[in-house]
Amino acid sequence: MRKIMPIxxxxxxxxxxxxxxxxxxEYFIREGEVPRKLAFVNSGLFRYAYINxxxxxxxxxxxxxxxxxxxxxxxxxxxxxxxxxxxxEKSEILEISYEHWxxxxxxxxxxxxxxxxxxxxxxxxxxxxxxxxxxxxxxxxYFNFLEEYPDLESRVKQNIVASYLGIQPESLSxxxxxxxxx
Amino acid sequence: MRKIMPIxxxxxxxxxxxxxxxxxxEYFIREGEVPRKLAFVNSGLFRYAYINxxxxxxxxxxxxxxxxxxxxxxxxxxxxxxxxxxxxEKSEILEISYEHWxxxxxxxxxxxxxxxxxxxxxxxxxxxxxxxxxxxxxxxxYFNFLEEYPDLESRVKQNIVASYLGIQPESLSxxxxxxxxx
Lengths: 182, 182
Hints:
Oligomer: homodimer
Structural class of chain A: alpha+beta
Shape of chain A: globular
Helix content of chain A: 40-55%
Order of helices and strands of chain A: HEEEEEEHEEHHHHHH
CATH topology of the domain at 7-110 in chain A: Jelly Rolls
CATH architecture of the domain at 7-110 in chain A: Sandwich
Number of helices of chain A: 8
Radius of gyration of chain A: 17 Å
């Protein structure tokens, strides 16, 4: 956390948060839940995923250590989360209630500036992903994924990588075979 | 603008902005340009659109009066815009340079809070759109579009509505015919 904020702010965040452990497959937020919390991922890995009406899964985001996790739209609008947040590895997080987070922002303008950086980053990631889906084929999206997250390939199961790329696991196998990655 | 901020702040924004007119088909930002400006749309209509490698267009957003327009990711990262912003109607905007905008934010914490609201709104719109593309068919997306923007149907050409829904104009015609909307 010290990489992204001064030590005083780290301590401030720790003072209002709770350390929690999540095992792989455990949910930080379930689909349908009205989320009242966010968290900083100290170690581990999470994903955001939707389930479609045919029961298929679509992984909309993979979030690594040193990032925040939240079902943000649902949290701020006090509505049900449309997606779930699941641990993919044994993970240690600092959980913060939304109320405490709002108080923090009231007390020090640092946190508004910090939130702007987080929202801008999330916005840029979403925009890039939208663009890649529109303009690039699955193969190119896969190579971009490998380049951007070089260590994720070994940490995430192939069916989740496929669902992140919006393709079937068989298509991912074909792409990997063609590129001699199997 | 008075609906979304106090009158003093409106005047502050007007004092650093320039009123400009755009005719339909004129570009506020071109693809490939490094954008150094944002704008408030006083009246009129704009769209954000990508051009794919086959020359096809994809309208990623339609922005009505009383909203801000910007190629935000490119502006904050000082990189080229991947999409263009085009006027769809005769439009009057208040153009603000990014430098002036940053100064405004430095001088009054109101603007950071205001920016958070804008980013949160943009984030929620993007998330909703992503979800609709993943989970709903074109027909349902079209009916949602009509419900959400009841007056846009008559203001925007059918081929642009189709490119916003991610379908061919012929598919939109079929959907409209089926629903007795033609």
